Amino acid sequence: MSKPLGPIPPGYETLEGELAVGGKRASALVTEAGRTPLFVYSRSHIDQRMTDLRAALPQRIGVNYAIKANPHPDVIRHLEPLVDGFDIASAGELELALSIGLDPSRISFAGPGKRDDELESAIAAGVTLNCESEGEADRALTIAQRLGRTPRIAIRVNPDFELRGSGMKMGGGAKPFGVDAARVPDLARRVIAEGAAWRGLHIFTGSQALSSHDIIETQGNVLKLAKELSDAVGVPLPKLNMGGGFGIPYFPRDKALDLPAVGAALSEMVADLPPVLARAELCLELGRFLVGEAGVYLCRVVDRKVSYGVTYLVTDGGLHHQLAASGNFGTVVRRNCPVAIASRFDAPADDEVNVVGCLCTPLDRLADQALLPRAEVGDLVAVFCAGAYGATASPSAFLGHGPAAEMLV
Ligand SMILES: *Cc1c(COP(=O)(O)O)cnc(C)c1O
Q1: What number does the ligand 1 atom closest to the CA of 110 have?
Q2: Model confidence at 168, in pLDDT bands (50, 70, 90)?
Q3: How far apart are the C-alpha atoms of 96 and 282, rounded to whole Å?
Q4: Of 100, 182, 221, 237, which has fewest CB within 10 angstroms of its CB?
Q5: 287 lines ligand 1 (CB under 6 A)
Q6: Domain annotation covers residue 52
Q7: Taking a C-beta distance cutoff of 8 angstroms, is the pair 85, 58 a contact?
């Protein structure tokens, strides 16, 4: 019995029998890159997603891009005019953002364990620090004083609720992220009293949610908490980073998020904000939702072999580039991501195979018992939903094959 594959995202076409991205055939893209494995990121998919988002969201709510989802410089450059801000999570991402020329006043820096040197470069550059603890805020204030700078400080809140159905939970109970909600007002008042530029609150409750109902409920809770905390701080909130957690369908039976429903509910919420939030700048911060479905990982079949009646397509790719497809990144039960034979994209799927990578570990699986067009050595395999947390969230040094090529088309 074959196992289902995840849904191929909309917008991918067939050209001369092959998968085409950005109007180019898979084989032509590989020729252009000079090698496999290769990540291809599609401009038109990113554009379409941003268009849909802007159409659904109230104008009042901005969109930030969480760079860690895909820090390829061409992807960031492409998003620069399309989004309102950027979220970074390390001094390395700060350096990248500045080298690309992003405006520091549009950048906020979240993440636990910021070192003193990271705080220093962020303060010197003028980016907003989303402080994750009282200790971090104190270190930031001390460093800013030494530098003679006014630090831009927001507080990341550890809320007492979380995004239900979320793939990765980041709120609710003890967490390494953020300051427990009950302690936020004291810290905010102290930060303001010390002369920092108060940049408001950051409430991130989880990731990879596909239920509009859960997202709407959570965003209602986020606004309610922001109001309570701001009332307790005693000054109008300047900015609220509302998190997001918008997911994409990776697996069989996953349904795309109902974006118009989320947008309509958010419009209602922001039409009726309490006075303490009335002037606040509002933004969502999204990663995978903006770029995940825009990425395709292409690898080549190196061997076709049979073991005890089971056919294996052995590729030159694997979990060292696309860990998520192997089921070893944030999932409990392994399910198949969307996978196709890129070089025979429209051929009938009548061959049941296991698609594996080239690493010496049984974990390195790209598709189990998948019904695909018959592929031979030399054919190209496409793994979809590879635009986020692929190239830089996989153990690319493992086994020494090195990183994959990447291109934006
Ligand atoms: C990782 C991260 C994001 C992006 O998450 P996605 O699931 O890719 O949308 C947003 N905000 C924070 C604070 C994060 O850590």
Answers
A1: 13
A2: low
A3: 25
A4: 182
A5: yes
A6: no
A7: no
- Ligand 1 centroid–CA 176 distance in Å is 15
From the alpha carbon of 130, which atom of ligand 1 is closest? 13
179 close to 154: Cβ distance less than 8 angstroms: no
Say whether both 250 and 308 belong to one domain.
no
Cα 390 to ligand 1 centroid, rounded to whole Å: 14
- 3 within some domain: no
Domain that holds residue 343: 13-41+293-408
**Which residue among 286, 313, 336 closes a domain?**
286
129: which strand partners? 109, 153
Q: Distance between CA atoms of 343 and 376, rounded to whole angstroms?
A: 10
Pocket test for ligand 1, best of 75, 87, 162 (most atoms within 8 A of CB): 87
Domain containing residue 93: CATH number: 3.20.20.10
Distances (CA, A) of 212 to 216, 218, 220, 246: 6, 10, 12, 9
In contact, 295 and 406? CB cutoff 8 Å: no
Residues 128 and 264 in one domain: yes
Mean of the per-residue pLDDT values of the chain = 96
CA distance linking residue 286 with residue 68, whole number of Å = 10
Please report the atom of ligand 1 found closest to the CA of residue 68.
1
Q: Is the CB of 204 under 6 A from ligand 1?
A: yes
Q: Is this model's pTM higher than 0.85 or not? A: yes
DSSP SS3 for 46:
helix
Percent of the chain scored above 90 by pLDDT?
Answer: 95
Ligand 1 site, residue 388, Cβ cutoff 6 A: yes
Assigned domain for 150 exists: yes
Cα(44) to centroid of ligand 1, in Å?
A: 22
Write down which residue in 242, 270, 286 finishes a domain. Answer: 286
pLDDT in tens, 40-87: 999 999 999 999 999 999 999 999 999 999 999 999 999 999 999 999
Task: Write down the H helix ranges in 3-109.
Answer: 26-33, 43-56, 73-79, 91-100
Do 362 and 336 lie in one domain? The reply is yes
